[in-house]
Amino acid sequence: MITQQDIDAAHAAAIAVPGRIDHKMVGSAYTYDREKANDVDMLVLVSDLDAAVEHCNGGGYVEHDEHIDYDDERSHPVKLGKTNLLLTSDHDWFAGFVRAAEVCRYLQLEERAQRVIVHKIVRDGASSDNYREPKVEPDFA
What we know:
This protein is α+β, with helices and mostly antiparallel strands. It has helices at residues 4-16, 28-31, 49-58, 91-107, 112-122, and strands at 20-26, 40-46, 62-63, 75-80, 83-88. Strands 1-2-5-4-3 form a five-stranded mixed sheet, with helices on both faces. A hairpin with a 2-residue loop joins strand 4 (75-80) and strand 5. The N and C termini lie far apart (52 Å).
């Protein structure tokens, strides 16, 4: 369960990242139910990704492969305690991620796989056809 203190600590961690331009809470604690979440995800837009990663690595953060489905060359996930920071210097990727998180929140998607697909469609422009189950036509005979 995530408390308001956990959320406040994650906001403070995001604010402390050098070169921070903006940050938004994303992830399951934001999109569907913080009582069921185990951590707080903060998406952090920075002016210099390498400097932000260096700061976090020097501050006790560890590489965080749980977010590998969201990770690509435009971002870098790190973790410290209940705080996950997803660092990026790509403004468009940041904006798309925020839009995708809002869609997930509106739909109250609990399943991680569904949230990842929404991010790929909304943030990256992937076709939903890539993720649909094959349709079975009804037999009316």
